[in-house]
Amino acid sequence: MHKTGHHFDNYFTFPLGAFNEQQSAMPAQETSNVTGGRHPLNVTFIPIPETLPEDGQFRQDFPSYTDGLVEASPGGYITTTQVFAENAENIYNLKPRPDDVFVLTFPKSGTTWTQDLVWLLMNNCDFERSKIPLVIRSPFLEMNYYVPKALQEKYERDAIVSKMRLPAFLVDLMYRFNIMDVVRPAVMKIMNLVVGEAVRDLNQLERMKSPRVFKTHLPLYLLHPELLETSKVVYVARNPKDVIVSYFHFHKLMNQHKFTGDLESFADYFMKDRLYSSPYFPHLLDAWTKRHHPNLLFVFYEDLKRDLRGEIVKIGRFLGKYPNEHQLNRMVEHLRIDKFAKNKAVNFEHYRWLNFMSADGKFIRKGKTGDWKNHFSPELNARIDDWMKANLKDTDLSFITELEQQD
Ligand code: PPS
Question: How far apart are CA 67 and CA 83, in angstroms?
């Protein structure tokens, strides 16, 4: 385990009030207080049978998925828990504002990178405030609603035992006699002081000050039906080969996913749409068909790698933000992979403290285009090529999977 004490100390000093009007902790199931004009979400979430048996292959490969996976019908969106299903309609009804920006991606497509870029543009390149953890400056919309309840409890218990130095038997007794339910709001308050309300429910998101910059992995059809008419969406896509490799490492790194298999079998899960946030292609293609909408900007990770400066200018223009030369130079320097990976406001190292992340590996790993070449066998590569071809045959979307020049 890495020593993260010094990171943790820093989290106490951030001015959280700048981002939230109110600092109260809410239980995960709290409903949104959207009133009137509510939109029904005609989507059902159905447990996927093969993900349920405890002794089945799936649960061996994903031991953390104690509730299996659920699949949205229609649309096929896959999520890890019923907690999301219970809250999907409230999330769908989160009222977008004209000055909101949504950084929308399939996971591992350059979300964090673009999120910080967009936040800087929206906040007059305030590099001083950008030292505040990104999760506080820019919330992950569905974060509160996708960790299975049992796992949430496990994290909570482990953190209390190891970080608050309470004896394990005492904490277990607190759970046994439901005392945790009583003390949880206080515990959450303390945890939030540490991580700075990284996990916010819909009420808290609704109370956030403008302009809000959201991160979300939800496909467009699960977001507010007036989103595109109201807010700006920066959609970031990355070629699926690098996404598979990055997602594989991420599933090994994060205790909430804890994938135990090899890359080959992970790629199969990916191509069969049996991973959290799958399916990949419909997610991208839905946004691709809307790429000419004035409020949606479709960006490629590979273009950010090729020409970061040019892409910052392009995204800025889309958002009505025009950084000067000096600001642009600083942004490019700030967002380049080497510096970005060391930036503790964005590199998620504090997740280790919360036992979210295993001791090995890093959230910001390599940040290159073409790393798949170091991972795929020729056979696996050929299968992925076939899968890509089949999914791209009726579209003009295409990907760059290698770059001659990159940072
Ligand atoms: S997540 O969990 O979905 O939000 O992850 P996401 O941020 O979308 O993707 C993580 C990958 O993006 C890479 N990354 C970067 N690449 C280039 N430059 C910068 N500044 C940068 N920041 C993050 C990160 O390294 C992950 O990709 P891999 O291939 O795993 O390195």
Answer: 10
Beta strands in 141-237 (DSSP E): 213-216, 232-237
Quote the CA–CA distance of 359 and 363 in Å, as a whole number.
11
Please list every protein residue whose CB sits less than 6 Å from any atom of ligand 1. 105, 107-113, 242, 246, 249, 335, 337, 340, 364-367, 371
Tell me the three state secondary structure of residue 176: helix
Residue from 134, 143, 246, 256 to probe ligand 1 pocket by mutation (most atoms less than 8 Å from CB): 246
- 371 CA closest ligand 1 atom index: 29
Q: Whose CA is nearest to atom 12 of ligand 1?
A: 110
Give the DSSP H/E element, type plus range, for residue 122.
helix 111-122
Distance of CA 109 to the CA centre of its chain: 10
pTM of structure: 0.87
Q: What is the pLDDT of residues 10-26, one digit of tens each?
A: 332 333 334 444 333 33
Residue nearest to atom 3 of ligand 1 (CA): 107
